[in-house]
Amino acid sequence: MTIEPNVLDLPKIIFRQQVNVDNSHKSLSEVHESVDPSKANGRWRRVVAFFGPAYLVSVGYMDPGNWATDLAGGSQFGYKLIWVLLMSNLMALLLQSLSARLGIVQGKDLAQCNREVYPRSVNFALYILAEIAIAACDLAEVLGMAIGLNLLIGIPLLWGVLLTFLDTILLLYLQKLGMRKMEAFIIALVAIIGGCFLVEMFFAKPDMGELAKGFVPTIPNSAALYIAIGIIGATVMPHNLYLHSALVQTRKVDHDEQSVKKAIRFNIADSAIALNMAFFVNAAILVLAAAVFYKAGMSDVAELKDAHRLLAPMLGSKWASHLFAIALIAAGQSSTVTGTLAGQIVMEGYLRLRISPWMRRILTRMLAIIPAVIVILYTGEQKVDEMLIFSQVLLSMQLAFAVIPLIHFVSDKKRMGVFAI
Hints:
The structure is a single chain. This protein is mainly α. It has one domain: Hydantoin permease, CATH 1.10.4160. Helices cover 74% and strands 0% of the residues. The chain is built from 20 helices and no strands. Helix 7 (120-153) runs antiparallel to helix 16 and helix 10 packs antiparallel against helix 16. The longest helix is centred in the middle third of the chain and has 38 residues, at 257-294. It is globular and about 60 Å long. It starts with 9 loop residues before the first helix and ends in a 5-residue tail after the last helix.
């Protein structure tokens, strides 16, 4: 006896015939399709239910590594490199939108797609490069949080680095609360960072004419080129492409063409809002450094500790320094949550190896803490900011190894059907 398909299921059947979809191995299986926008009451609530994944991604664009490169760029070259931030942000928006598209249409993250298509040797190389990128990013977060704690309450830098192990407990707690609670926590931290810099801008009073000139592309010298590369690496992060393609799958989407189109559209809007907020934070750090330090001829202020120490006397308020430290801690803490998720996605996607979140957190954190402790013990605290900038340059060198496969997949008509670019 032949069983006829339900008429209501026909759009889904047609979609699966047009697009090569296989959900046998789910990304972040514990929260996969855990948010159902269709159950939200009212049209706007259904739209807002799609918002959230891009905010988790955006914190990677305002982590402490970004602070170091933005601060160095602003204090050494004034407003001249703000155009690099803008171009990087536009590039990030494009790539994150493509990453979201891949996850929504394929029902797989970037690591899973790579595993299916490329030879084992290529996948092994891509996996190692992705882990290096995550470790470099986590290194920046460890150092940023340690510096923030040192500036705010005077904890020695080495102890601050070791204390960052405690955020393993926070991550486990957030994962138990569910995806929406985790997103709300991250959005709250982003709001704290943005609010702190909004007040800092009020204190700094930047020259708007010079700021506008900074959007005209120019690279003054080779030192500016190094900082510009660091800004690009800090803004467009390779592991975020893996992360976003998995996070969008936390939303339950019917697999018919109309529903998928709607999900893609809402996720692009989510990305635009979240990444523009990240651009505001990065631009604010660079503008603050230009308005306060570059203007005063203090082009050697490239360290977070120097910036914290000088902000209060130069802006005439002790709150300027306190807000800087609070925002730095919030940036480090928010980024560390998403770094662990990215590591879990990469490991499961490439190796199909599942380990508990706390083990993954410890593994990622050890890869970051060991070099941080070695540098602090053997060179002192003076080289910490140099390590922050180097971590961002390292990230920019890894970018192509995530971007090329992403573009390959989203432009493949056989895999993406009508949603190929």
